[in-house]
């Protein structure tokens, strides 16, 4: 094609000079719309507005949410995510073969955002990869804490609000540091590096 440059000519073209920029400056370089779209599409989600990217030190985890089954929970999770609430919080309770729990700002399972949610129990079964809301004895006591199932947990069905499912990266959840006591509390737990709504990326 006439508009394409020969290889010999492209060698002589100057490259953008970002080598001597500090890390801070390179982070400020604008990302093209095309590249941003490519990144979003690489996660292959059905609905980017109702999908989350959970970053761990082991790798990226994609969670697709269920706004039709738990609309108020999904709306609240997105609100907290967009506030940066979950960034840096720990997977404080992790029980091998059962579940990994996070979302407590105190890091011990006793804290939340201060906004309780009315239960939205649904028919989605608690199977491997399901993301569900943690709560106290009161069914309407869920706040910000959630757990990801390592295996099928049918005894939880209809008792906790299922609001999402891990659709990729479950192998990274498997690598989270496990608790040593029967309650699953973790010493020096792994953290959520960042949690983002994929449409915002």
Name the beta content range.
15-25%
Sequence stretches where pLDDT stays below 50 over 5 or more residues: 1-29
Helix/strand-derived class? alpha+beta
Total tally of structural domains: 1
* Helix content percent band: 10-25%
Number of helices: 5
Shape: globular
Q: What order do the helices and strands follow?
A: HHHEEHEEEEEHE
User: Strand count, sense and closure of the main sheet?
Assistant: 8 strands, antiparallel
How many strands in all? 8
Structure overview:
31% of the residues are buried. The radius of gyration is 21 Å and the shape is globular. A hairpin with a 3-residue loop joins strand 3 and strand 4. The chain is 18% helix and 18% strand. It has a single domain (50-200), classed as Beta Barrel (Cyclophilin). It has helices at residues 7-11, 23-27, 33-42, 71-82, 170-174; strands at residues 51-55, 60-65, 93-95, 99-102, 130-133, 146-149, 162-168, 194-197. The protein is α+β, with helices and mostly antiparallel strands. The model is unreliable at 1-29 (pLDDT under 50). It contains 5 helices and 8 strands. It has an 8-stranded antiparallel sheet with strand order 3-4-6-5-7-2-1-8.
Keywords, please?
5 helices; 201 residues; 8 strands; 18% helix; single chain; 18% strand; alpha+beta; globular; Cyclophilin; disordered N terminus
Question: Quick gist of this model?
Answer:
The protein is of the alpha+beta class. The protein is 18% helix and 18% strand.
SSE blueprint and pairings:
Elements: H1 7-11, H2 23-27, H3 33-42, E1 51-55, E2 60-65, H4 71-82, E3 93-95, E4 99-102, E5 130-133, E6 146-149, E7 162-168, H5 170-174, E8 194-197
Antiparallel strand pairs: 1-2, 1-8, 2-7, 3-4, 4-6, 5-6, 5-7
